[in-house]
Amino acid sequence: MEDTDKRMTSPLGRLSKIFKNNKKAGNIIFIAGIIGIVLILISYFAFDGGGTAGESGTAAQSGLMTTEQYTSMLEEKLKQIVSSITGSENVTVMVTLKTGAEYVYANDVRSSADISEENASGSSAAARSDELEESYILVETSDGGQVALLLTEIAPTVKGVVVVCDGGSNEQIQKKVSDAVTTALDITSKRVCVTGR
Questions:
Q1: b/e map of 7-33 (b: 16 or more CB within 10 Å)?
Q2: What average pLDDT does the structure give for the chain?
Q3: What is the pTM assigned to this prediction?
Q4: What's the total number of domains in the chain?
């Protein structure tokens, strides 16, 4: 008997009593619970976990491409272009970079100037001192941290490209591949080497 009294006084017991006695109230509570779960899932994907619509500052910054990833991406795209030209999948591409990626962050510059006059034995002289204070603008992330506000990312500069492919010894294919690479990367033909296997 005590067990049934405890069940009836516990929150779960009261909730089951509502479900039994009033089906309409029970349905409303059930629907409200489902809506709550859906809202939690939407907020998770929209603001934190999904990384699409509400990408936080740290997620955006950690999503920046490293130099190695950038090089691999260029090599893969050039490999696809050269394969289309030669008609062969047997292509090797190597890209070297002159510089890494550069990141430009928003900053706040404050300057102050002090002008003072000095009187020594009846003469006056003006002295000026300038101070420049520079600090980055920080934004708060969803996890409470702070990161610098990234304005732009400047892609690395390509130093040279080597392409080894079937038919690379043929002058016509060399010219086509070289023209494609120089156009795609906006570099001179002196920076491109095309050779056969």
A1: eeeeeeeeeeeeeeeeeeebeeeeeee
A2: 75
A3: 0.50
A4: 3
